[in-house]
Amino acid sequence: MAKPQRALLIVDLQVDFGDPAGSLFVAGAPAALPHVLRLVERARSHGELIVWSQDWHPESTPHFAPQGGTWPVHCVAGSPGAELLPEAVLAQRPGDVVIRKGVAGEDGYSAFSLRNPITGEVRSTELAALLHSSGVTLVTVCGLATDWCVKATALDALTAGFTVEVAVAATAGVELRDGDTAAALQEIESAGGVLC
């Protein structure tokens, strides 16, 4: 039986989420970062496709609290907070794929889909087609934040027909409510994802 073609998908390892000074800092991000970087090294040594997703919002969007959304202003396109963490920038190589989400003001939780926060319309990003065309069958998901963008990305990957692993130590959750991260991981596992 042929070995599955793997890809590593690193979700939103950005300054606003991963730096203590960021506008939407995820407390567990510094502990998760070394685990992410080890996954990048492993994937690179095996010649796997590496995908980085980035929140990349306009300055004003219904996604943000000032316009009625859930979140503080974060990851505004071109701002320092939207940049990948310096360690992630150093780990990137030509040939890696970058998926920017929320570009037109959508809720860009998943690297696979975008949802209009007003109409609820959902449309796909180019990621699933790119992975399928590259022969990828297994996706390892890591990054920030477990209970939002990692969860949405993992669930969409399962829906798109991929085998999905979530590298738990290489993730961290926002925890708007206590238990959100554990519930997210349980939801991924219940949908057929593998926690590793």
Alpha-beta classification: alpha/beta
What would you give as the CATH superfamily? Isochorismatase-like
By CATH reckoning, the class would read Alpha Beta
CATH architecture: 3-Layer(aba) Sandwich
How widely separated are the two ends?
Answer: 23 Å
pLDDT < 50 runs, ≥5 residues: none
Number of helices: 6
Which descriptors would you attach to this protein?
6 helices; 6-stranded parallel sheet; Rossmann fold; single chain; alpha/beta; 196 residues; two-stranded antiparallel sheet
Description:
α5 packs parallel to α6. This protein has helices at residues 15-18, 29-45, 86-91, 127-133, 146-159, 180-190, and strands at residues 6-11, 49-55, 97-101, 113-115, 122-124, 138-144, 163-172, 194-195. It has a single domain (6-195), classed as Isochorismatase-like (Rossmann fold, 3-Layer(aba) Sandwich), CATH 3.40.50.850. The strands form two sheets. Strands 3-2-1-6-7-8 form a six-stranded parallel beta sheet. It has a two-stranded antiparallel sheet with strand order 4-5. The chain has six helices and eight strands. The mean pLDDT is 95. The protein is an alpha/beta fold.
What secondary-structure arrangement, pairings included, does this model have?
Layout: E1 6-11, H1 15-18, H2 29-45, E2 49-55, H3 86-91, E3 97-101, E4 113-115, E5 122-124, H4 127-133, E6 138-144, H5 146-159, E7 163-172, H6 180-190, E8 194-195
Parallel strand pairs: 1-2, 1-6, 2-3, 6-7, 7-8
Antiparallel strand pairs: 4-5
Helix pairs in contact: 5-6
